[in-house]
Amino acid sequence: MATIYYDQDADPSVLAGRKVAVIGYGSQGHAHALNLRDSGVDVVVGLREGSSSRDQAEKAGLTVMTPARATATADVVMLLVPDQHMGDLYAAEIAPNLEAGDALFFAHGFNIHFEAIDPPPNVDVVMVAPKGPGHLVRRTYTEGSGVPCLLAVHQDATGNAHALGLSYARAIGGSRAGVLETTFKEETETDLFGEQVILCGGVSSLIKASFDTLVDAGYQPESAYFETLHELKLIVDLLYEGGLSYMRYSVSDTAEYGDYTRGPRIVTDETRAQMKQILAEIQSGAFANEWLAQAREGAPFLLEQREANRHLEIEQVGAELRGMMPFLTPKAPPQ
């Protein structure tokens, strides 16, 4: 059974008296910095000169410094910048400013597990990873609850790394919902697998393929959009609230029968074999090496696909339909 910790297991005094530098102010960065501050923690934000997030952080009442200066003034450093940029930033601005007894924190194990970052042996290395996007980490905290977190200790130089990680998780609201103990290896490999096989890659591919199948068969794109994308949220909400059985209880008998009889024809033995191959690529480091090599070249494939997918018919139809839904505030990525 997994070990899960709650508020009563986390001592807030362990983090008291420490100064935390949150490096980055994106989705997770802003949530960590604001929650830490509101929990009474001394926190600064580390941003590069000219960062577009500087005004936002300062308007929120936070002190902003360069990553190098923030690291030098703090003794707990949480790195919350994109995986592909973290190694270079660490080498240039973080590593030279770490001192013995400092703690290096991560919200994802990628750079430690795949050895893009090699911390010195005299610092604690800990992961506190909220299992939800930053806006939920912030919103649930302000509502008095929190987002569950994962906790892992890669290096315990001081003998206090585990307690410090729990204290940090409590300060951002994680121990209100539960903090599950794991390892950097488990978190990294399962996280990448989930993103690629179901949460992003699998779901996106299923949505696009099913939409195209209906449209190619002559059905209205609007009808296809509702059936293959819009209603997905309703099903996911049922899964989130009660698992597979509750979802099947909540839908029609016809839908449940179709689930059992047709679902396995979509996820075939070949699909399962590809899942195993994808997991093997993650475990071996092949995916990490591929992605970091792409990033060093400016991520041309990522940018090409991002632009191409913006112009898919399902995206155009969806934008029009969402604009007619009074219960939604339409959202779109920046151009």
Fill in the keyword field for this structure.
single chain, 9 strands, globular
Q: Largest beta sheet: what is the strand line-up? A: 1-9-8-7-6-5-2-3-4
Number of helices: 17
Order of helices and strands: EEHEHEHEHEHEHEHHEHHHHHHHHH
Please estimate the helix content.
Answer: 55-70%
User: Which residue ranges are poorly predicted, with pLDDT under 50 across at least 5 consecutive positions?
Assistant: none
Mean pLDDT: 96
Q: What structural class is derived from the secondary structure elements?
A: alpha/beta
Kindly report how far apart the N and C termini lie: 45 Å
The total count of strands amounts to 9
Shape: globular
What is Rg?
22 Å
Largest sheet, if any?
Answer: 9 strands, mixed
Q: Hey, roughly how much beta strand do the residues contain?
A: 5-15%
